[in-house]
Automatic annotation (TrEMBL):
This is RING-type E3 ubiquitin transferase. The lineage of its organism: Eukaryota, Metazoa, Chordata, Craniata, Vertebrata. Pfam families: zf-RING_UBOX. Coiled coil: none annotated. It comes from the Eukaryota. InterPro entries: 6-blade_b-propeller_TolB-like, TRIM45/56/19-like, Znf-RING_euk, Znf_RING, Znf_RING/FYVE/PHD, Znf_RING_CS. It catalyses: S-ubiquitinyl-[E2 ubiquitin-conjugating enzyme]-L-cysteine + [acceptor protein]-L-lysine = [E2 ubiquitin-conjugating enzyme]-L-cysteine + N(6)-ubiquitinyl-[acceptor protein]-L-lysine. It is an enzyme of class 2 (transferase).
Amino acid sequence: MATADPQLSEMIEEEFLKCKICFELYKTPRILPCLHSYCEQCLAKMLEKGQGTICCPECRTKTYVQGNVSNIKTNFYIKGLLDLFESKRNKDAVCSVCQSCSDTFIQLPTLVHSFDTEDMEDEFDQNITGIASFENGDIVIADESNSIVKEFRQNGKTVGDTSVSEECCPCSVTVCGDTVYFSSTTKLYKITGDSDIIQINNLRGSQTSYPIASYKGKYIAVSEGAACTLSLYDPKGCLVDRVKPHGYHGGKFMFLAVNSREEFIVTDKAKKCIVLFTKTGEIINVCSSAGSGKFVPFSVCVDHRDNIYAVESGRIIQLSPKGEFQRVFVDFKDETFRPKLITADAFGHLIVTDKEGSIRLYKIKTFSIRMIE
């Protein structure tokens, strides 16, 4: 059986995974602006409460933390490495790319940018109900409260917005080709290049919301709730197919994604699971847990390697392309940011938004650790 070089593992653990204050493995690692990292608990002990500052014990740089060390950014590199070492203590790691080679691949998130999408002209507090990305990386969101579809660059610059009437306020949103589509109650709409809004079809059933996703510019997939089916519409709104996993009943389909192999990943609100199935209805896997505790998956997406990511109980979890739980990718339990929706672009970014429209972009970096016999 392949195992990691013990000397290398010990060196990595000693040099990179131990806090320089308590000399133990990091617990909730936080990174200061000077790029030195420490445990959150250790930083809390150093907080100069009267001034709300922390003096770095290594370089003596002072950092204002607004009275709470939880305002300091999490070091996701260290957190990812800790997760990897923990997983290797419990079981042999497997290559998430080919499942057979002697390399261990690990995806680590790096926060590269964050911005707020709220506009001074918004009449109400935002309620973001949909997020998607264009092929060029631009981000589009649906703000149901203000009946607006907004588009942004990845640096947060506004590209434009389209106001939608209250009769068809946007719910879920997707990009098919270079056109934005959104659902509203039981209708499917598209936004033309001239910002005109055109209804292209009535959706079957009587769900209060219909999450949607697209596949390579060929069709828009619509999740149909308690029917546990997906309807596929071409860009003109014509029904081209319906997909239902064989023998699957009693659930309520919610968010969905389509991977490069044209397999469907759907979260089930009633059964509290993530279902992966083919276009012919064959169920590949049903994921119903992510470690201990309740499992409540919400929004879901796939990256360019077909790895699956889902928002689940205030964190982002990662599943393999086969739908098997691998690890917690980002945990927000110690932050005020509460993830709601998630999407991935073709450039290796994971894009997350909360209900109020705060957006975070994470770079998904893949590292390989060579295994030896």
